[in-house]
TrEMBL record:
The lineage of its organism: Bacteria, Pseudomonadati, Planctomycetota, Planctomycetia, Pirellulales. It comes from Lignipirellula cremea. InterPro entries: DUF6000. This is Uncharacterized protein.
Amino acid sequence: MHDTLFMEQWVFPFYLKILHGNYATQVIVGDELEKFHSDVHRALDAITPTITARLIRGQWREAITGSWFAGLKKYTEFQHQIGERLLASSACYAGQSHALAMASFADDTSVEYLTRYLDTYLRRPDCIYDQNWVMASLLWIDHDNSTNHSEPFLAPGGLWDQFTADKVTPDDNQAWTIDSNRKRFWRTMEYCRKHFMAL
């Protein structure tokens, strides 16, 4: 019963809306978005490091939620735990929130995990995981910190070009272009900064 109550309080109201940054993309609007804001504000007031740790080490739904809240709260004590889950890539889409948390921390440790991930998974064009979110996260950190950690990956003919060569088409698939990924990630991060991190 306790596990069910935990999921109902800390996971079910959030994870589907967090997924793909749905809260920032007009997928959720009106009363549903208002309720999400209220739920997030209440959660930010009540969440603790103990709850966050339990979420991050849980299954993919819990992990998505836990990393997202860790990023909003700047709980850097979980950075290595989040980074190891990112590198493991053991569940679809969970890397999105891990990447967002790393962008929120925006420090050398974040860069280390993001670059390790990209150096590993951009070499695997058969594995479509969260490379686009991680690349955008590294770009965000470069923008915030006036650094250039993303440049080696984006060099012409480099790992990003190699990975996306069979994924970007001029007619109907722009999901893997740098511009589209940057815009989506910027929109998500700016939304969080405006509505949740400023509290």
